[in-house]
Structures are given as C-alpha cells and as structure tokens.
Design a protein that fits this description.
676 residues, 11-stranded parallel β-sheet, mainly beta, single chain, 35% strand
Amino acid sequence: GGTAWANDGGVFYFNDNATVNLQNCILSGNAVKTNANNGGCFYKSDMGGMVNAQGTIYQSNSAFFGGVSYLGTQAWTNCVVVNNNAQFGGVAAGGMHVWTNCSVSGNNMATKFIYSDNAQYKVTANNTILAGKLLGGGVYPFAFQSCLIQGDSVGNYAVSVDVGNINSSNAWFINNNLGIDSQNSLAINNGSTALWNANSGNMMTDYVNNVRVQGVTIDIGAYEYQGTSDLAISTNAYATSTLNFLTLPQAIGNIALSGSVVEINTSSVLMSSQVLWPNVNNINLRAGAGYNSSNCVISASAANLTRFARLNYVVSLSIQNLTLQKFGGTVWANDGGVFYFNDNATVNLQNCILSGNAVKTNINYGGCFYKSDTGGRVNAQNVVFQGNNAFIGGVSFIGSHAWKNCSVISNSAASLGGVAAGGMHAWKNCSVISNSAASSGGVAAEGMHVWTNCSISGNNMTTPLIYNKNSTVKLTANNTILAGKLLGGGVYPFAFQNCLIQGDSVGNYAVSVDVGNINSSNAMFLNDSLIISRNSPATNAGSNTWWGLDSGNVTSDYRGYPRILTTTIDIGAYEIDIPSSITFNKRLLTYSPTSPTFTWSAPSSYTSITGYQVYFGTDPNGVADVSTGRSTTYTPSSLVKGTYYFRVSALNADNNWGKLTTVYIYNRPPYRVSVL
C-alpha cells in the first residue's frame, strides 16, 4: 500500500472469514490512504476473520481509521506495537481484540490509539503496557487487567473492567522495541500469571525467547526483564544454545532432559520461593567458572520465608561448589529447612556449605533435611554443615545419610539430636565439633549409625552426645575419637571398637561391644579442627581392619592425606603428619675453618614446613636449641679444635616436629667434613 493508495487493508484484505497466524514477524511501514482508507495492515468489514499473532512487531503503519487494524478479530501475544498512526485509532478502530503481554507505545500520542463507537466492539488487554492516550469514540465495553498505563488512566473512561492496573509516569523502555531498561520499572513482577496461562496458548517464552515468569510473578509487557542474568542452563537442556533465567526455581523447574546442568554465575542468588524439583534425573546444580562455595551463595531473600527445595519424585540430583544458607528460620513452622523429601530422592552434595538454616525451634524437625522415614538419601563429600538448628535434628531428621570428609560444626536442637535424629547414617573422616541439644543427644538421637575414623568433641559436654531408648537402634563407632559424656537414654546395643574416649568410658555403660578402646584424659588436639599431635594416644592406635571394612574404598583422611602413613591407622578423622628426616646436601654452602655455613634440603611433609631447629655442638645426641625460622642454612662461629655434630629437625603447619637428625659431622682440625 502507501499513504496515497486508495484501498483498504494495506497488507491483508479479508473478503471472507480467513485465519492468519503470524509468528515472530515484522509488519512495518505499511499504509493506506490516510484521509480516506482503513486498516494499515488488516481490513475486515465486520468482526469475522482472525489474526493470531505471537512475538510480532507492528511498527510505523498508518491509515485513516485503524493504523494497524480495522474491525475483524485480533489475538496478540508477546507483541510490540510502536509508532503506528491514524486519524481515528492509531492502533485499532473497532473489532474484537485480546492483547496479552504486549508492549504498546508511541501510537498517536496526541490522539487515542483505540477507537470504538459501537457496543459490539471489545478490547481485552491483559498484562500489557499501554503508553499514550487510550480511548476514543465514546463506547468502551473493554477490560483492562493487570496493565501498566503511562500517560493516561483507565479510570478516565467508563470501561467494563478495570482490575489490577498500574499508572506510571515512566515504563522504563530501553529502546524503540520497548524492552525494559531498569529494575525500577513497575512492569516487573506485577502481571497476572493466571491471565498469561489462560490466554497465551501454552507459550513458555517472551518476545525475544526468554523464559516467561522468571520472578515471583510474570512481568507486564512483551518482555521478561533480564537485567544481568545470573543463571544459565547448559545447551543439552534445550534446542536453543542457552536459556537465561533470573530465578533458580524457574531455571530448574523448566528442565525436561536428564543430565541437564544449571550454573550459577554470580556471587549471590536470593530466593523468595522454593524449588519444586522436577521429575527429571541427574540435574547438576553447580557454581560457574571462577566461583565456589566461598563466593557463590544461594539464600532466602528474607528470614522465615522459604526452604531451598521440595523433592516430590524419586530422582537423583547433584549440587557442587555452592553455599546454601539462611533458608527457613527459627519461627518458620515447616519441616526441612533446606530439603524436604516427599519421596525417595537422592541428593549428592560435593564441596558445599550448608549454614544458618533452621526450622521453628519449638516444634519442627530437620534444620537441613527432613524425611518421614529412612527413604531418601543424602551423599555428602567435603561438605560443611554449620550453625543449622531445629526442634529435633539440627541438621537431619530421619532419611539415609552417607557423609565423607565433612565438617559438622555448631548445629543445635532445642530438644533432641543436635546433628541427627533418627535415620541411617554412615560417617567417615568427619569432624564433629560443638554441636548441642538442650535435652540430650548433642550429636545424635536414635537412628542406625556407623562412624568410622571420625573426630567428635565439644558436643554438649555435660549431657550425652548419643541418646537412645530403642532396642532396635544400633550405633557402631570404629577408630573414632569421642570426647565428652557418651550415652543417655538407657538402651545401648552399641559397638565401640578401637576408639579413643576422653572424659568418659565405654565401661560405664552396658554396651554390646567394647573392644580395643583407649580412655584418655587428653586426646591432645592441636586446634579446634581436632587435628591431633604426634604424641596423642590416637596416633597409630586404630584398627586397619575396621577401616578396610567400613571405608568404602576411601584411601585418604579428612584433608586428603593418605590413610595409614605408617603401619597402623590413626584414630580420628586425621592421619598425623610428621615431617620426614632432613636430607643433606653433599657440600658446604661456604667453607671456613672457624665459621662454616651448612645447608640442607626441606623434608617431605603433606602440610607446609614452617620452621627448623638445629643443634651444633660436640654431643652426638645433642638437643636442638637454635631456631633458624624458615631458613635452610646455618653458620656457627668461633669454632675451636674438635668434632662437631650438626643436627636438624623440621616443624610443619600441624605443629608437629620431625625427627632430629644428624646430617653433618665437622672436624676442626684437620679441616675435614663427613656427610652422613
């Protein structure tokens, strides 16, 4: 057509009731004679004919009546309608219209962009941005629902329905395609998801193929606000290369393929609602490149608001290198602060931190995990559980748990089970420190437990760390350090084998098995992490047999150092690391009869070497009395005639000294050196 083209319908003329379906199209610069003809794009002489448009832009079209359409029936979803023009109805003159999540602006800013003078005409606008003068013609059996209005107000007209609309002086458009530029736009999260679902024809994306409903609620307009996207689903999840999301529940909830990956590429993700984990196997949620649990944190956006995830299906999922913190809350009246197992899902956690999570501490169970029976499983490796709490089960309530190389610190229960209440537990190389329960069971209340090479200390020192009144329950502790009051509840079908007991004695209780245990007033911990010194009675005192039977092919200790560094495994979560003997260099660094300089090589040690002590004198068994700091050279002075012995010992970061070794014998005179 054209502005002097004297015909109706610049693009389509409906002579009968045809249906036109448009998808991802652009209709731009079309026109009919602007002082006589109607319908810059579409013309129908009555309400027949149908245009279904999805993801389509109508731009700079013009006519006398109806810059885009004249009469007919129009259903537009995710459409952008910008800078169209007519003397009557810059966008539409008459007809039946349903606009859902469209963005409409710049259309006849001085006159009305919808013209209606007949009661049979109707326009329904859902979740739509309407910028400009709205209506003309005087008859408006229209419905405006959850729209954003800029430059006018629905209240200025006698329309049939005016529900949930927002007046704003600025919709914050980014460009002529009407994308949203600012998180300050009132269009964000203010639409009606119900209206979208009812009118979108099962569409899942917005105008530019971003996933719909990325926040709590759908955005108004043709676009979901993207801002700086913090999540990305890997390419194997969809036919498109990558889909971006702003909320974790939306990202995970849209996965349909097993083996999909969700990456977090920002330091902080806030959640206002839980993830309803889909019935899809082997989803992997992980930190993106350059992120880990120390700088990639997922948390609730407010206290006492939501848990992390509800697991409704028998699926396996993995979470890696992330921190999950501050879910639930101490007055949040639900079970399972982080995970609620509604079915027998398996959660695999690796290199994660779960901290500061809680449920209501006078009634609810499982600060992190809740399962009503022993179904459902948590496999945790190199995970920190810290500062979680509940009424019963500060970390877990029932379920099945296999934890390896985990730190379990300062969790609490207002009643029973500072860490665990019930369930089945297999812990290996775990450090369990300063957990508490107000009634009993600072670590565990009932449940079936096998603890192998764990270090457990500081947990309710005045009340029992294990509570049990059930004869069907059993706890087996192998090669484990247990510091504190052991048992409460009165029923102990338990086995303690090659454990180190500090502050109590297995002999004080009627347990089933008491074999090879050591009572000690001091386990000789070096620090709050429960690493032991070389002089601890736990050193070389465990049972290689128990480790072999229960370790599950684990070959290292809590820190990843090899298990059984000598001939016998140490008791507890750590193998004691002692520097090897000092090796020698086959020359003097400098030679002087009265003041030679000696040098040596650093010994092997899994922890770093932090210093040396030396002895230089005439006693072949002399005791080290000089520190060289980290230096591996030493220069004595003013030597007189005689035979001298140079001996060196190394200190590592565990504060353990290696063997003091003679590495040089120095004779003066005759000026001769023997290197051993």
